[in-house]
Amino acid sequence: MLALTWVLALASAGCQRKPDAASETGQAHAAQGDPAPAHSTTVAEPVAPSAAAAGSWAATPLGRDMDRICNVIERAGVAHLSEGEQAMATIAWLPKNIESEAGREFLASIANLEGNAKADALEQGARRVGLAECALAQLWRE
To answer: 18-51: per-residue pLDDT in tens?
Structure first.
């Protein structure tokens, strides 16, 4: 479980928004005459009510990100590796495969949680987007 702790901590660090992404977002909104969206530094609350209501997590970037997070061992193809090797491979895979700012914020918000607290946060995030379960949460309960 220690290796998995490092996986999520390092992966969430790698998923932090890069400075150029902030300026691109601001430029896109400025071009439309809208103010740039505010980005919170508090715990991210993954919310995709339309996808969750419809049960289609795949309909939104956040839903797809939560699927990648919850099923990272399978999605990254690292189940056959030792725990330490899984950690290293997952650290490399996860930041490259999170597509939404909300997914990155969610990862960052759970980085310092451990055990049941992290499992609960993962399961809650999964439910919010319409996923029935979160395999990674089960690993945190073991």
So the answer is: 434 443 444 444 444 444 444 433 445 554 444 4
DSSP-derived letter for residue 57 is G
**What Cα–Cα distance (Å) separates residue 49 from each residue in 60, 106, 130, 133?**
10, 16, 9, 17
Structural domain boundaries of the chain?
2-17+46-141
What is the H or E stretch that residue 31 is in? helix 19-31
Q: Which residue has the tokens 């919170």?
A: 40
**Rounded CA separation 111/127 (Å):** 19
Confidence of residue 7 (pLDDT cuts 50, 70, 90): low
Find, among 56, 57, 68, the residue nearest to 107 by Cα: 68
Q: How far is CA 126 from the centre of its chain?
A: 10
pTM for this entry: 0.66
